[in-house]
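Give me structure tokens for this 281-residue protein.
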Amino acid sequence: MLWKNTIIEWKDRESWCSVLTSWISPYLAGRGVQALQEMGYQDICWDDSDWLKKLELVAAVDLEDLVELLSNALVSTYIKAYHGCRVENAGVYHRYGILVNNPDDLAIQVKRLVNEEDRLASFRPRIEQMLLEFKNLSYDRERLYLALDDRILTDRDGHYLIYGSESILGILGEDAHEVLSKRGIPTLVHVQLPIRLVAAGDRMELAKTLIQEWTRIIVNLPSKVSKSEVPKKDLTFCLQENVSPNLIVAHSHPKRIHDPLHYGIWHKAAKIVCASCQSDL
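Here you go.
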């Protein structure tokens, strides 16, 4: 019951750190949390698994069992997650949710794009063959992806926000970059995701991530939890069902996005307001 209805947001430690302290304490031996705090500052990188070795020194159960226990306990919680895309009006997500990849729909989108954009006219005679030859068209069939940390989407994997669908990028190639970057608005869709929808493997990875970061906080930042910078975490959830519109809690349009396809330059969005934003004003 301790975790029930908790909304975990990676960037907001206060949303999960104190709850995790209460949950994990019975699984620690001896003086538990106090023993960790008394270790003093450890010169270990924030994402180094050596933090788990520090926790093992005071754990009363096997570490793998502890991760699995937390993974199971998290089933009653929610996780704040993000979907990166490029769309003209983000209201479509609030109405229809986020849909899993459908190769047939994707092919229709590509053909419509090529027919609408004169700058892509050279693709028209061969687009059908290009679709047939694109081996990854069905790779992510019936899947969609959400990120734990929106900063990964803006500061590293910005191609989703700048150019849209990775599959369309793969089909049309670099010649379509300019056209794709002019259509739509870079968009982050904010999802309050029930963790019960997350695959067991991804849930285990989340549990391990929380335990490792919690250990670092307790050892190195006992009095600075809310003040210190939260590190960027690359963790993606793969879902095999649509995200219902009632789980879409907000959307936003980043101003600056890192472009990994063009020497890491920073892309400045021409528009940061869509029709759905304006209707809410």
